[in-house]
Specification:
The protein has about 170 residues and is mainly alpha-helical. The protein has one domain (about 5-30, about 35-155). The chain has helices at about 5-30, 40-75, 85-115, 120-155.
Length: about 170
């Protein structure tokens, strides 16, 4: 798990990439009758950049704050709970606000193609369960472990300082 705010931001960049790319392919495939083809992946990739930016902002300013608050208030206790329990609690709680808001993002993004504003609320509400059943296992079983593994391979513990050495005051 990240040890400071800089590590947390770097980890978030990696984790959001894994989650948004998968969920983009998943949702485009779902709207095309569960087809998976290079054209589906290409369509998902085209919509990826703005979705990634929105997801990063939601992660940093909304979801991570909610997830940590909820996990530490109701699920785990720092110093008493295992690192695995803390990781699973926070990761699970991240899925709820991210699915809620990114499903809204997806419905609004679909509106830009269809022009049917009246369909947005129903599309949003029907997308939430579909996205939840895809996001939770992907987060806990694939994206989370892969992101933690990649993060620690690229940035071994102690290599990302809270403040860069050249910024410290003497």
């Amino acid at each position: 798990m990240p040890q400071n705010k800089r590590e947390s931001l770097i980890f978030t960049v990696i984790m959001c990439f894994c989650m948004v790319l998968w969920m983009s392919v998943y949702n485009v495939s779902r709207t095309h009758g569960w087809e998976v083809s290079p054209s589906i992946v290409a369509e998902a990739w085209v919509g990826f950049p703005p979705a990634y930016v929105v997801a990063m902002l939601l992660d940093v300013f909304v979801a991570s704050r909610f997830a940590k608050w909820f996990a530490f208030r109701f699920l785990v206790t720092p110093g008493k709970s295992s690192k695995l329990a803390i990781t699973l609690a926070i990761s699970t709680m991240m899925v709820f606000p991210m699915v809620f808001f990114m499903s809204l993002y997806g419905a609004l993004e679909a509106f830009t193609h269809t022009g049917n504003l009246a369909a947005v609320p129903m599309m949003w509400l029907t997308n939430i369960p579909w996205n939840f059943i895809a996001a939770l296992p992907w987060n806990l079983l694939i994206a989370g472990p892969f992101s933690r593994w990649l993060f620690r391979r690229v940035f071994p513990e102690g290599t990302v300082l809270e403040t860069p050495l050249n910024c410290e005051t003497a």
